[in-house]
Amino acid sequence: MNNYLESFLPMIKGAVQFTIPLSLISFIAGISIAIVVAIIRIDESKNGFIKFTKLICAFYISIIRGTPLLVQLFIIFYGLPNIGITLNPFISSIIAFSLNIGAYASETLRASILAVPKGQWEAGWSIGMNNFDTFTKIIAPQAFKIALPTLSNTFIALIKDSSLASVVLVTELFREAQTLAAQNYEFLRVYSQAALVYWVICIFLGYLQTKLEAKFSKYL
Questions:
Q1: CA 102 to chain centre
Q2: 146-173 b/e with 16+ CB inside 10 Å = b?
Q3: 36-40, 95-99, 123-127, 164-168: which range is least confident on average?
Q4: Which of 73, 83, 192, 220 is deepest in the core (most CB within 10 A)?
Q5: What pTM did the predictor assign?
Q6: What confidence tens digit (pLDDT) does each residue in 151-199 have?
Q7: What b/e sequence results for 189-216 when a residue is b if at least 16 CB atoms lie within 10 Å of its CB, and e otherwise?
């Protein structure tokens, strides 16, 4: 029983020190990328520069959505040193996860922005707001409310996907489980414990998601 309980400690430590920070930083960075990409893709101006950036964004989304996250992680951590760019495991993981989240979330945000009735833009213009003020004060809050469930699920999925960082030696939750299993050969028990820790984290995040959605439904 003591061994069973003691096995949780390094996994919880890995979750607190690496899994959760890695997921939070990657999610925030990814959403920042997604916002920029989504805004560029919904821009209807005929400017040549905008058209060019749209092509870049479309290529970025296509390559990220068309390749496995694990391959992207391997390219950044193991591939970039071949051209003289060496990054530590944690930074490599953040870059890979951020780019991945950015591509997928940009489509969520783009769809959410387009789902806001065009009349809302016209309402902003009618009271003297410019495009920026109309977007930030009227459109963005409504779009965020629409996107919130999907973005929340994306973050929960990222918590689980962070286990992939173990392949580049980040000592997060799953890496700690692998180390323990290699020491005591109790693979079923240790990996079941790791699954339980992930499950508890996701249950808590699901609870926060419900509260957040209720709050936004009330005030928006």
A1: 7
A2: bbbeebbebbbebbbbbbbbbbbebbbb
A3: 123-127
A4: 73
A5: 0.90
A6: 999 999 999 999 999 999 898 999 999 999 998 888 999 999 999 999 9
A7: ebeebbeebbeebbeebeeebeeeeeee
